[in-house]
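Minutes, project check-in
Item: structure for the 304-residue chain
Input as provided by the requester:
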Amino acid sequence: MRALVISGGGSKGAFGGGVAQYLLQEMGKDYDLLVGTSTGSLLVPHLALNNIERIKGIYTSVNQKAIFNVCPFVVKKDKWGEETIAINHFSVLRNFLKGSKTFGESKKLRKLISKTFTRDDYEQLQKSNKEVLVTVSNLSLHKTEYKSSKEETYEDFCDWVWMSCNYIPFMSLAKKNGCEYADGGFGSLVPIRAAIERGATEVDVIILETEVTYYNNLPSTNVFSLISNLHGFMMDRIEKQNITIGKYAAKQNNAIINFYYTPTVLTTNSLVFNKEKMKQWWGSGFDYAKDKNIELNEIKEQED
């Protein structure tokens, strides 16, 4: 069984989409199982149906207004030209006065999901021989859960995709079946083991980070940047742990893993959705996958 796994990474999902496009269209790979976390969960249902142009159009045109109904921050540029976030005090205060538990709300993203991935799409997916898994973090039970396209209703599946992307406390804290749910990356940022446990023997893994850390975070300038740095630290630890566990699971089950990392640092703040940059990242992902596979083929030819 062949599987595709796409990690979390916010706006960097555009790069992952470019990599996946090359694997599907140029290499002709046919995946039985597609597993996503956070932004990966947004990608995999469309990729399973080969709706590449549609999801590319979304990732290369989306902005903050399409994600947040209450955006808790404003985007500014520092003296080095880097995009940073600062607190939108008015929006945050108004949100807390309304009784929200988070700084911002991402209900527009939920509407975007059902608008771009229709009931007909879901029925087509269920009739196919492909399975899509999305990762969510159950905060109430302290569990990582995987929701399958084979087992959920359309509305529930769209809910799970949305919850998988909710990077709290900046986005919505969702409640379903009596439990609170948040971004799947808090539990499994790179869900390789989930794919192998489902029977995958060859896994292509798209990781929306560089393989080696190339930068130091700038000093925190406000509570948002502090929380963002803290989340980044935790996600980095979770990612490395997931990869180690995934490699171990692959070894135990004689599975092959092919890794696709970002070759450079795309952004230090993946909550900023800049459509021009995301267009570039999609193209960069496609070119990177092409170059990587050309290099691998050359190595194989030399070995033969």
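Outcome recorded: The radius of gyration is 19 Å.
No further action items on this chain.
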